[in-house]
Design goal:
This protein is 57% helix and 9% strand. By secondary structure, it is of the alpha/beta class. Helix 5 runs antiparallel to helix 6 and helix 7 runs antiparallel to helix 8.
Length: 461
């Protein structure tokens, strides 16, 4: 066969070698995908007000899940008889044998575990954002395969065929580049959807799209790829194609299944402190005294002390709370009284949240208040703000003698006003409180006060 008119690829997999240490193209591409992926997720976390403290863990979970899943997938899908007879050989990853379908299952499990252990991360929220990183990483990996002259295609005479000179003299389908192109275009599409339409998409849609595109394209590209594993085709399809089918079906389920978020919200439940009214214990302490040590004690021994929780739940009176604070902080009773007065005065209405409340009412939705607040503080706010007349119902810890994050106060609200949890949206600044609400079937938003947070609320109302 005349191969003069075809593109010849003879690049060495190794970029350079120094003192026995070699650097290969595949390693560079893999590291590039990992590096860029990390910084993309860092940008997403910062943009959406998520804690960066747990970001490092996600890649550890993801790599371990992908590798373990891919290895087990290879052993169970392609040669179960051998590995069941020789189970210790499953550990010999260095001998080769990884299945991408198993890798997907492993990553899904790993990200589920990570999300469960991270208070402000929702599993589907995480999956949708990780799709951008996965698509980009897949592009780099297939580019690395091309530089290594591996995962090559079947012989062909198409004009764009490539002669992989390090393999043989035959012009072949550049199957790696087919996949790399699909993954890069998918990366662009997912990035666009995230930047422009993420609030309009159902949770899980982007992950479903990733599954459908990656494994749907792989199903067809497999027809022009050299089989990677020894497997007797069934009805003309290899194992990779058969395994792609359930992944595509799962992707379609993620994209089009009815989710809790697709149920129309009829009731919006607002917290008060740090959501409807400014609540900043650190700021209050700084305004009260210039003594840094006392500032820290005020936060720890007043606002985050059990007495404050009891005060919120009306288990102790304001007078008793002031007396105890005076004794604990070792300040005069008059100063403790002044501190409580400054606390009340600091509760300033947050205009943007108030506008959101007005929008709720304009859209003929019901609005409710669910807050940990003492009877004294609640009366102070109610006497000075007309917004409380806009609520269709109010439940406070001071009236019920129980508070968040306990489940009982949520149940009181739902039972008293006969609310269907699936029709409710709960907005609170505490991840523990929103976690309790979510466990009861209530759509919840952990309030950060950011523009993106308000945008998310408005997509529901």
């Amino acid at each position: 066969m005349d191969t003069v008119n075809y593109f010849h690829w003879n690049t060495s997999p190794e970029i350079f070698s120094f003192s026995g240490l070699s650097v290969g193209w595949y390693g560079v591409f893999f590291a590039s995908g990992f590096f860029l992926g990390f910084h993309i997720m860092r940008w997403i976390y910062s943009r959406e007000g998520k804690s960066l403290a747990t970001l490092d863990n996600i890649f550890i979970y993801m790599v371990l899940g992908a590798v373990l899943g891919a290895r087990l997938g290879h052993c169970l899908f392609y040669d179960p008889a051998y590995y069941l007879a020789n189970p210790l050989d499953i550990l010999k990853i260095w001998e080769g044998g990884l299945a991408s379908h198993g890798g997907v299952a492993g990553m899904l499990i790993a990200m589920y575990v990570y999300a469960k252990q991270t208070s402000d991360i929702n599993f589907l929220w995480l999956l949708d954002r990780m799709t951008i990183v996965i698509a980009l990483g897949s592009f780099f990996i297939r580019s690395g395969n091309f530089f290594n002259s591996e995962i090559i295609g079947t012989p062909t005479t198409v004009p764009w065929a490539v002669v992989f000179s390090r393999v043989d003299p035959l012009p072949r389908h550049p199957a790696q580049l087919y996949e790399a192109l699909v993954y890069f275009l998918l990366f662009v599409l997912l990035s666009f959807l995230y930047l422009k339409h993420k609030e309009k998409l159902k949770a899980g849609f982007m992950m479903g799209l990733l599954m459908v595109v990656i494994f749907g394209s792989r199903f067809f590209i497999e027809f022009v790829k050299i089989p990677q594993e020894a497997f007797e085709p069934i009805f003309g399809l290899n194992m990779g194609q058969w395994l792609s089918v359930p992944v595509v079906l799962l992707g379609l389920y993620f994209m089009f299944s009815k989710s809790k978020s697709s149920v129309k919200v009829k009731h919006v439940i607002f917290d008060l402190g740090a959501v409807m009214f400014d609540w900043n214990p650190e700021k209050i302490a700084v305004n009260f005294t210039s003594d840094v040590a006392l500032q820290k004690r005020i936060q720890a021994e007043l606002y985050y002390h059990q007495d404050w929780i009891d005060f919120d739940c009306a288990l102790i009176t304001e007078k008793e709370a002031i007396k105890r604070a005076s004794e604990r902080l070792e300040i005069p009773l008059e100063d403790a009284e002044d501190l409580f007065k400054q606390t009340k005065n600091s509760l300033v209405l947050i205009k943007e949240t108030f506008n959101t409340l007005k929008k709720v009412k304009e859209n003929n939705l019901n609005a409710y208040c669910l807050s940990n607040i003492s009877p004294e503080l609640f009366t102070y706010l109610k006497d000075r703000n007309e917004l409380f007349e806009m609520f269709d119902g109010i439940v406070t810890s001071g009236n019920e003698n129980t508070g968040k994050p306990g489940k009982r106060i949520f149940e009181i609200l739902l039972e008293r006003y006969q609310l269907n949890p699936e029709e409710c949206l709960f907005i609170d600044d505490s991840p523990k409180n929103t976690e309790t609400a979510s466990a009861l079937g209530i759509t919840s938003i952990t309030f950060k006060g950011s523009t993106n947070c308000y945008q998310k609320i408005h997509t529901h109302i």
